[in-house]
Amino acid sequence: MGLMAKLFSKYAPKPSEGREYKVKLPKGSLPSYIHISPYYKVAWKLMGKLAEKNIKNKKYTKLEMDLLKAHILLRPQEYLAYIYFTTLVMGLVGIGLGVFVFLFGYFLLPMLPSIIFILLGIIIAVMPPIIALATLPSSPASKAKKRAKDIDIHLPSAMNFIASLSSADVTVATIFKELAQRKEYGEIAKEAEWITRDTELLGKDILTALGEASRRSPSTKWQEFLQGVITTATSGGRLKPYFLLKSEEFEKEQKLNLKRNMENLGLFAEIYVTVGVAFPLFLVIIMAIMALINGSSSATIVLLLEIVVMVMIPLIIFVFSYFIYSTSKEVTV
């Protein structure tokens, strides 16, 4: 550990003149390094050269920014190697499953045409790698959107926290350091943690760290807030009134979102009463009357009743429950 500390202090980038790094670590210790899983290491070892060659493709131009916004701690080349390796693994798994399905059908179900199992085996062999190659490149962007949604949800409460610390004349760097320790604010705490890392570990000034955080943030609202902090500070304005103003703004926006959320829930409740309660009940009554009138087709009507009761009604309940759950997660108090 002592040798590594000496090497780090010798070969680490030196700060410019008149400026010191504020590295708050115990004496002789090193920053914690990123531990990459063995799967990523194997993927990079096997597919690294191919990934380095293809990373300049136009369709991967946004990959680096998507990885930053999603907080996926991999370089674009490493993630591209992971995509290629996963596609290869899924291809091998698909081929194995396809051969198994073909042999199973060919030997155990000889009464059916062989062409059915050949086509089924080909489909099973081809689909897994196609799905992997189609979904994995867009996975960072999808995760970034989820992070943006989480940031927007926690932004009003986090803004109240920032405004309260600002009212006590706490510095901006300390505000974000304290915010980074509040895990109840979700992804905002992680954004603040990266800002604190830039200022305390990498030696950047707070405005530079805020500018970089704004560029890599997936949330438009958080970007606008950070840009407002930079603009207010560089133009000589006071940050305390700005924080209080943004706190009131996000609080009003949260109230409007809550009102809109309640209106949507009321609309869902009315639709559920019509579609999920009245319609199935009316359908069951009609089918029961038809079964009494038409005795010859009563078995078919009973089967339809079972489908309505056992399939349609639970499906309607599930769909409306999912809509209510997703709507209730959009706004938190």
Describe this structure in words.
This protein has twelve helices and no strands. It folds into three domains: 105 residues; 106 residues; 77 residues. With 333 residues, it is mainly α. Helix 7 crosses helix 8.
Radius of gyration: 29 Å
The string of secondary-structure elements, in order, is HHHHHHHHHHHH
Structural class: mainly alpha
Net shape:
flat
Separation of the first and last Cα atoms: 47 Å
Strand content: under 5%
- Residue stretches low in confidence (pLDDT < 50, at least 5 long) are 1-23
Arithmetic mean pLDDT = 83
Q: How many structural domains are formed by the residues?
A: 3
For the sheet with most strands, the description reads: none
Q: Give a count of the beta strands, DSSP E runs of length 2 or more.
A: 0
Give the proportion of residues in helices: over 70%
Helical stretch tally? 12
